[in-house]
Design a protein that fits this description.
Elements: E1 2-6, E2 10-11, E3 27-38, E4 43-49, E5 55-60, E6 65-71, E7 73-74, H1 80-83, E8 84-85, E9 89-98, E10 101-108, E11 112-122, E12 128-136, H2 139-145, E13 174-180, E14 190-191, E15 194-195, H3 196-214, E16 217-221, H4 231-240, E17 245-250, E18 262-267, H5 274-289, H6 299-330, E19 335-343, E20 355-359, H7 366-372, H8 375-403
Parallel strand pairs: 3-7, 3-8, 13-16, 13-17, 17-20, 18-19
Antiparallel strand pairs: 1-11, 2-5, 3-4, 4-12, 5-6, 6-10, 9-10, 11-12, 14-15, 18-20
């Protein structure tokens, strides 16, 4: 015996009787009954859950994507490659979105709409099977119906208005916003048992500890757990908290270019090399695949931010990058043979905060992989970054009166 709950856009699944007992713990996605498959004209999504949970679904355009949100579920054991047996759906990303909620995003090879959806809950076991059937639609109809609904329970908060920061004295702690790359639904690079999002969160915490023990620093993190934070939100957090410095931390995997050794990236309209261009493309693409609606992005605004970043902030940013490279090199590195690079990273587009992106190593490099797994090596790199920040602040404070005349 089972019950069927049909939904159109939003559904809250409820169980009664014997099945209600299953709601006491975190629901698990069961891989043996879950799959993405093609049908004759469209595609089908089936998810077997240990218990029913509230969920919603919607589509986004540019590129076409299907987004499926759940009350938080455990994705452990679900292999994306084994799960995705469809040519019309994929690649698929899934994981934590915001605390308490999970997200699955499937890229659509062509515009498709959900023609039927059903959540069937077993009265005896409490397990639930979610079935979605998708069928083709024309591009115009898809675009007209696409869009992310706004609901405070599910969505990231809107960025707050930016307020002017007061002038700081030389004795005021330097406010450093550390940005552990990726998170939640966006794992980043993966190599053996290392996942970039986890590794960068660990390193950010280690670096925070080094800075706080040194003194003279106030340290903030864009995320302090495994959650998804959009690129726009990362920049907004730095603005809202009055950060003096923004440092995005990564350890990507890249086969093109010289992908080994630490590099420091600054903002530039044009990439300095192929590897930096590929990295910037990958980082921005993660926001698309993670279900962020960028259909309203205004390229003119981006151009203005880039121009602003090249006035007073750009020279300060370039000086910061130089000091960070020097600091890390002096603690042992190893550094890439071209450690200073540039590209149009969206996460670096704050107009008035010196912002850099540090690749402390590449998971695709066997040497870097070994170093990144070593807590002692990570400590030396953290100390190198601290030394660079100290040197930069001393020089920046000395230059500031001249810049403002």
């Amino acid at each position: 015996m089972s019950r069927v709950l049909a939904i159109a856009v939003f559904c809250v699944a409820l169980a009664t009787g014997a099945g209600a007992q299953g709601f006491s713990g975190l629901a698990r996605v069961l891989p043996e009954g879950s799959a993405l498959t093609d049908t004759r004209k469209g595609a089908r999504i089936e998810l077997l859950l240990s218990q029913g949970v509230p969920y919603r679904l919607f589509t986004l355009d540019g590129p076409p994507r299907l987004v499926l949100d759940f009350q938080e579920v455990d994705w452990t054991g679900l292999d994306p490659e084994a799960f995705d047996r469809s040519e019309r759906l994929g690649p698929v990303h899934f994981g934590t979105y915001v605390p308490g909620w999970s997200r699955l995003v499937a890229a659509l090879a062509e515009p498709m709409a959900v023609t039927s959806s059903e959540l069937r809950i077993d009265d005896v076991t409490g397990s639930a099977r979610l079935t979605l059937v998708l069928g083709p639609v024309d591009a115009e109809s898809f675009a007209a119906s696409a869009g992310a609904p706004r609901d405070a329970r599910w969505d990231l908060p809107q960025p707050a208005e930016v307020t002017e920061r007061p002038e700081k004295s030389a004795d005021t702690p330097l406010v450093v916003m550390l940005d552990p790359g990726h998170g939640g639904i966006d794992p980043g690079a993966e190599q053996l048992d290392l996942i970039e999002k986890d590794l960068m969160l660990t390193f950010a915490r280690e670096l925070r500890e080094v800075l706080l023990r040194t003194g003279g620093f106030e340290v903030l993190l864009t995320r302090d757990d495994d959650r998804f934070v959009s690129l726009e939100r990362r920049v907004a957090l730095a603005q809202q908290t009055g950060a003096d410095i923004f440092i995005s931390l990564h350890a990507d995997s890249l086969s093109e270019g010289l992908a080994h050794g630490a590099t420091v990236h600054v903002l530039s309209r044009d990439a300095s090399d192929v590897a930096s261009a590929k990295l910037a493309e990958r980082h921005d693409r993660q926001d698309l695949l993670s279900g962020v609606d960028l259909s309203q992005t205004d390229d003119a605004v981006t151009d203005v931010l880039l121009d602003l970043a090249r006035t007073e902030t750009q020279p300060r940013t370039e000086a910061l990058a130089q000091e960070l490279v020097s600091g890390m090199a002096q603690t042992g590195g190893p550094m890439n043979r071209r450690p200073l690079r540039s590209a149009a990273f969206s996460v670096l587009k704050s107009a008035d905060i010196p912002s850099v992106l540090i690749e402390i190593g590449f998971l695709s490099s066997p040497r870097d992989l070994k170093n990144l797994s070593d807590p002692a090596w990570r400590l030396r790199m953290a100390e190198g970054i601290r030394n660079g920040l100290q040197s930069w602040r001393e020089a920046d404070d000395a230059r500031r009166p001249l810049v403002r005349q």
